[in-house]
Inverse folding.
């Protein structure tokens, strides 16, 4: 289980150097990451875990610290992956070697097999349908998916889960405070609500 010590380390990780609006690069707050990964620990410990849209590696590092056998962080942005690489190195200075591998790839074209996916994907606010792309990729590649999504995405999740042969549940909601990091932001801070979902394969899709 991740502890306060782990959360303090996650708080020290480097952030996006130049957040890109079209990629919706908002960091996962360490407190949310810790709570999410502790709830998912039965699907993480001893498992092969992929973090789709890993950004700066917050969930990748957290999943490794939570006992994953191997973690693969995948992102399209080379700048974010450079920061993720530094963050992994920093975590290893504190906790020793971590089996984290970073891959640059576009999620819709990326094929993989894993036990579990953990992710904080784009919510489709800047590019419509990006949340669907990530969730479909996750369900195609893993048997269990833990994901943050826009608040109360139940109808959206239900439709995709039924099509893909997954059971699903909304585990909890979080308030998320977003800082002004991009040019189009008008306020210094804005609080939104997000929902945490767990999806598990119950049958293979006929698609």
């Amino acid at each position: 289980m991740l502890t306060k010590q782990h959360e303090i380390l996650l708080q020290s990780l480097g952030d996006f150097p130049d957040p890109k609006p079209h990629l919706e690069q908002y960091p996962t707050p360490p407190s949310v990451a810790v709570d999410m990964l502790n709830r998912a620990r039965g699907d993480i410990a001893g498992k092969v875990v992929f973090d789709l849209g890993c950004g700066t590696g917050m969930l990748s590092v957290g999943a490794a610290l939570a006992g994953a056998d191997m973690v693969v962080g995948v992102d399209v942005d080379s700048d974010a992956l450079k920061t993720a690489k530094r963050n992994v190195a920093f975590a290893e200075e504190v906790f020793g070697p971590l089996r984290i591998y970073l891959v640059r790839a576009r999620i819709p074209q990326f094929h993989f097999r894993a036990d579990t996916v953990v992710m904080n994907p784009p919510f489709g606010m800047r590019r419509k349908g990006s949340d669907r792309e990530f969730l479909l990729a996750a369900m195609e590649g893993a048997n269990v998916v833990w994901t943050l999504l826009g608040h109360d995405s139940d109808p959206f999740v239900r439709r995709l889960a039924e099509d893909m042969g997954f059971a699903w549940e909304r585990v909890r909601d979080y308030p998320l405070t977003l800082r002004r990091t991009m040019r189009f932001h008008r306020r210094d801070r804005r609080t939104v609500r997000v929902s945490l979902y767990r999806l598990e394969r119950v049958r293979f899709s006929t698609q």
In short: The two ends are 37 Å apart (CA to CA). The longest helix spans residues 78-95. The mean pLDDT is 91. The chain has one domain: 4-15+25-201.
